[in-house]
Amino acid sequence: MSVVALFAAEGVEAQALRKQLSLQEALDGPWAIHQGELGRYPVVLIETGVGKAAAAAAVAYAKVRFNPVQAFWVGVAGALNPDLKTLDLILAQDAVQYDVDITAFGRAPGELATGERFIPADAGLTSKVLRTAQAMGLPIHLGRIASADRFLAHRVEAEEVRRVFAADAVEMEGAAALWAAKRMGMPMALVRAITDQAGSEAPIAFETFLESASERLAALIGRVLSS
Questions:
Q1: Within a 13 Å sphere around the CA of 77, how many CA atoms are in the beta-carbon half?
Q2: Rounded to the nearest 5°, which phi and psi values hold at 188?
Q3: What residue stretches are annotated with the Nucleoside phosphorylase domain (predicted)?
């Protein structure tokens, strides 16, 4: 069977997907996992928890257990690009782990020991998500997502991440998920909805718009898998 894997870090994000896509059958496992069918696809949804380690581990687990033919990481993010507005969608062309720092050894900021820096999302899936969002009339932007094991809530630091990495949005899982998926041979798209401008007001805006952003993403993924 051609299984599709969906990943979401936050409970609210996962709940919106479960409701929108009717993925109510719970499976045993080290994470909260639900399954169902959408269109011609059997679908599994894994609620991974927050952070890069959790993201990479969940992707590897999904590959071994379900061997998905395609995967989508969905969730919310803080905007670094001033052109991004609340509830806009940001679709990753690539992502970087901006908290990785081995510059003492002559590496660029964010460059991994493997030599990788900007990890590409799957081009085919990314194009499909983009076309679907545009057909739905959703505001969507292609760009770069920066990931780290921290919630970025300081404006000056956010501006520095924007300057150094030319990143459009910031979150806590996507770059690690794409890296693990690439290593495991799992095509993956990474799409986020903006809840806030990364900075001092970010925690309040994040909580305010988390649910509505998650619902928008769930509607998009539902249409992608039904088309």
A1: 35
A2: -140, 140
A3: 9-225
Q: What is the pLDDT of residue 201?
A: 56
| Domains: count for the chain | 1
Angle between helices 202-226 and 11-21 (to 10 degrees): 30
Cα angle, residue 118 at apex, residues 49 and 75 outer, rounded to 5°: 30
Residue 143 pairs with which residues in a beta bridge?
92
Beta bridge partners, 188, equal: 71
CATH, residue 44? 3.40.50.1580
* Percentage of the chain exceeding pLDDT 70: 95
DSSP state of 128: H
Q: How far is CA 116 from the centre of its chain?
A: 19
Instruction: Write out the residue range of the structural domain in which residue 175 sits.
Output: 4-226
- Which secondary-structure segment (H or E) carries 7? strand 4-8
pLDDT in tens, 139-160: 999 999 999 999 887 889 999 9
Rounded to an integer, what is the distance from CA 179 to the centroid of its chain? 12
Token code pair at residue 38: 């959408």
Which candidate, 7, 89, 99, places its Cα nearest to that of 47?
7
pLDDT in tens, 197-207: 765 455 555 56
